[in-house]
Structure formats: structure tokens, C-alpha cells
Amino acid sequence: GPLPELGHPKEAAAGSMSGTSVHCRPPVGPPLLAEAPSRQRRHTLPASEFRCLTPEDATSVFEIEREAFISVSGTCPLDLDEIRHFLTLCPELSLGWFQEGRLVAFIIGSLWDEDRLTQESLALHRPGGHTAHLHVLAVHRTCRQQGKGPVLLWHYLRHLGGQRAVRRAALMCEDPLVPFYRRCGFQPVGPCAVTVGPLAFTELHCSLRGQAALRRNSGC
């Protein structure tokens, strides 16, 4: 099942001036030495980068999410306003994968303070909670079937493991996706109390205590 572009940098306009040209005598002095290639300033974007998302990334996030979910279920886990809401309140619980400056996959989460997910957990961030609720994981359509979902999820769990307040991760998914998340370290805890229209979900948890939950295993 599908799991679930940044704006392009503006190019400086090069202009030319017409009219009488003015020639100036160059200043007298020692010749300038060319800067060594190793010291020249580079303006290239990193080939691959994982970072927390910001509200400025919301539109790119929503475009990927909408394409990934609308065609399958007819609805999105988060609308654009909800994406901005979570990226404003708890950007540290998000993670985006950028390749040459372009968003190719992302996860958005928030904190929850109860043992199990409820309908309220879909829209709330509880700062005192110890559970990271993963609202959505999505991969750009041109990057699917490349193993990016498991790689991003592994990086995300490592990211959460570095936050003392977060003790576990929780998510809900439809039954066909349960094996995927189990390979990534999540364990089913039963049917989820949350429903979205006719859709029913299984709730899964992943403990973040100890290194075992943060290791990348052969299946994920």
C-alpha cells in the first residue's frame, strides 16, 4: 500500500546595461591570487538531508499527502491547517527527508498523554505526554517502491529516542499495513478506538527504551 516538492530557489536575474561604456584604470598593486578550489564557497544543496519540518514546509507536505491518500481512501489524515498547526506547536516531532532540497518523504507527530489513542488524539498535542503519536507517513509518488518509508521511519525513531520526554511511539493503520510496521519494531495492541468514516484501524506501539528499539533490523 502507498505510504505515505519544496519551492525552487529563485534565480538571480542577469541584466545588461546599454549606452556609453566607461573604462576605468585598474588599481596599482600586486596581482590577485585565485582562490584555491578547496576554499571556494560552494552553493550546492546537500544530496540527502533529514531535518525537522517547519510551517513553511506545510504546502509541500500537504501536496505529497493529498496525492498519496486521496486516491486510496478519499481523505487525508491531516488537512493543510492541521499540518501548519502541528508544525507550529511541535516541529521537533516531525521529520522530513530532503534530496537536493526537494521534500521526498515525511512524518508528522504530536505528543499524547493516554495509554491508547482516541478520537481526540487526531487533532491535539499534549505537551505533558510521553507518547509520540505518528499522524502520517507519506512518500512522494516518484520515490515509492524504493524503500524510503522504512529508512525514514528508522531515522524518525532514532530522532525520538534522543528526546527524554518521549518513551514510546504509537500509530494506527489499516490491517494490510500491519506487517510493514511490525517489521519496523511496532507491535499491535488491538483495534483502535479511532474511526474515520467506514475505515477501522489497528493500533500499534513501539517502545523507545533501550537500543533495541532504535536499531535498524533486516526487515526495516
TrEMBL record:
Gene3D superfamilies, alphabetized: 3.40.630.30
Cellular component aspect of the GO annotation: cytoplasm
Catalytic activity reported: a 2-arylethylamine + acetyl-CoA = an N-acetyl-2-arylethylamine + CoA + H(+)
GO molecular function: aralkylamine N-acetyltransferase activity
Compartments in which it is found: Cytoplasm
GO biological process assignments: circadian rhythm; melatonin biosynthetic process; response to light stimulus
The UniProt record lists the keyword Transferase: yes
Ranges in coiled-coil conformation: none
Function in brief: Controls the night/day rhythm of melatonin production in the pineal gland. Catalyzes the N-acetylation of serotonin into N-acetylserotonin, the penultimate step in the synthesis of melatonin.
Protein name (database record): Serotonin N-acetyltransferase
Protein source organism: Galemys pyrenaicus
